[in-house]
Amino acid sequence: MDQLSWRIVRSVYSVLASVAVLGITLNTLLLLTSIKEKSLRSTTNTLIGLCAFFDVIHQMGYLVQFPILFSDYFIDSFICTAVMFLPELGLVSGALCVFSIGIDRMLSITIAVTYKRLPKLYFLKVCVPSCL
């Protein structure tokens, strides 16, 4: 890549890293609020807090790449895969967690009477391992 292309990539990546820092901050606040507040202990709110946790892990990946882009150091594919394993795991787990939230909301609407009698712990035992 020529010098102009690198400047464009670095400026765009700076915006992405700034958005990642904002996302990490806000998702951490959401997670802490879900843990601290007693009224947010429903199944849906627990899954939303778990989704926020996985989003924080995913957004850390943008910050891992930041120093490499602004230096002359290049890494090979194996090291990049090893470094980005946890952020990629956070991405997949977050997507599965959003899917679990959708299933939870669909069940609460379609079988509302049975859903209210369903033990919260039983439902979480099914949803949480599917995210991991």
UniProtKB/TrEMBL annotation:
<feature type="domain" description="G-protein coupled receptors family 1 profile">
    <location>
        <begin position="26"/>
        <end position="132"/>
    </location>
</feature>
<keyword id="KW-1133">Transmembrane helix</keyword>
<keyword id="KW-0472">Membrane</keyword>
<dbReference type="GO" id="GO:0016020">
    <property type="term" value="C:membrane"/>
</dbReference>
<dbReference type="InterPro" id="IPR017452">
    <property type="entry name" value="GPCR_Rhodpsn_7TM"/>
</dbReference>
<protein>
    <recommendedName>
        <fullName>G-protein coupled receptors family 1 profile domain-containing protein</fullName>
    </recommendedName>
</protein>
<dbReference type="InterPro" id="IPR019424">
    <property type="entry name" value="7TM_GPCR_Srsx"/>
</dbReference>
<feature type="transmembrane region" description="Helical">
    <location>
        <begin position="90"/>
        <end position="115"/>
    </location>
</feature>
<dbReference type="InterPro" id="IPR047130">
    <property type="entry name" value="7TM_GPCR_Srsx_nematod"/>
</dbReference>
<feature type="transmembrane region" description="Helical">
    <location>
        <begin position="12"/>
        <end position="35"/>
    </location>
</feature>
<keyword id="KW-0812">Transmembrane</keyword>
<feature type="transmembrane region" description="Helical">
    <location>
        <begin position="47"/>
        <end position="70"/>
    </location>
</feature>
<dbReference type="Pfam" id="PF10320">
    <property type="entry name" value="7TM_GPCR_Srsx"/>
</dbReference>
